[in-house]
Amino acid sequence: MANLKTIKTKIKSVSNLKKITRALEVVSTVKLQKLKSQADALKWYLVDLMTIVSTVGQYHAIFEDKKSTGSNKSLVVIFTSERGLCGGLNSKLHRKVTAESKDKEVEYFVIGKKWLEYFKRVGANIVWSLHIGDNFSEEDLLPLFTFFDTSLASGEYGEVKLYFNYFKNSIMQIPTSMELYPFRQTSFEAFLADIDVEITPPVIGNKDLMIEPTVSEYMVELRRQIRNFVISSALVQNKTGEHAARMIAMKNAKDNATEFAKSLKLTFNKARQWAITQEISEIVSAKIAIEN
Q1: What span, in angstroms and rounded, lies between the C-alpha atoms of 23 and 11?
Q2: CA–CA dist 100, 108 (Å, integer)
């Protein structure tokens, strides 16, 4: 009978776990749908911005072919999840960052709790960290924008790379990196291909164009806006990928809990049947012994 009680307790625990994972799956699904629409809105903003750039004929001029500083230090800006239970999302990005940052003098700007905890354990050089919840806005990234602009102005870093998980679809999140400085054309166009953005310059004929206040100031501001857009997009993509990964992980956990509960119920029924059979056998044996 003690064995039956143990199995019954396990069935109750697994059933409670199934309810929890089901609730987390539903919450992640709702948040995922909300972020998908936000990612689409950002994509259309980029299309309009790059259309303006292409219209004034300054597309190739916005890129920097080489560094303007001789510093050997690199800054890695990395987006991670604030919570766990999202499968191998963080570990895949970790392997990419580790492989590409090997043998380099690297400092880290960390967005997200999970990687901040890890970097503290391994003694990595963290220059700044941010915690951004699910209800976020672009203002939450202002410390990063300020730090980035100040660092570039002072020439502190010779390279700045951005790492995040790109949301390809609900079951696939791809660890992605992009160079924010130097701002190279190949890296940016690979980013455009990843987020499925195609730029088609409009036909403006022989109209004259006026750039104010000056072309140089226009280029500086344009680079700043594009970099800020890429960082904001990385946040949205990473958050979307986090909820998608958590949704799939919780669905798998719920399905496993369902199968395990079925297995436990079968074991419980077999054990109960065996206990009943044994009890009947003992009664019959006792009756036969008394009659003899």
Answers
A1: 19
A2: 13
pLDDT for residue 205 is more than 80: no
Q: Which two tokens stand for residue 157?
A: 């870093």
Q: How far is CA 78 from the centre of its chain?
A: 10
Q: Under a CB-based contact definition with an 8 Å cutoff, are residues 166 and 194 in contact? A: yes
Least confident of 47-56, 108-117, 130-139, 177-186: 47-56
Q: What's at 152, amino acid-wise?
A: L
**Rounded to whole angstroms, how far apart are CA atoms 183 and 189?**
11
Q: The whole model's pTM is what?
A: 0.80
Structure tokens that stand for 74 in this block:
């690199």
The tokens 């701002």 sit on which residue? Answer: 183
Of the listed ranges 103-107, 199-203, 218-222, the least confidently predicted one is: 199-203
Tokens 């602009």, located at residue: 149
Whether the link from the prior residue into 182 is cis, omega within 30° of 0, is yes
CA distance 73 to 106: 6
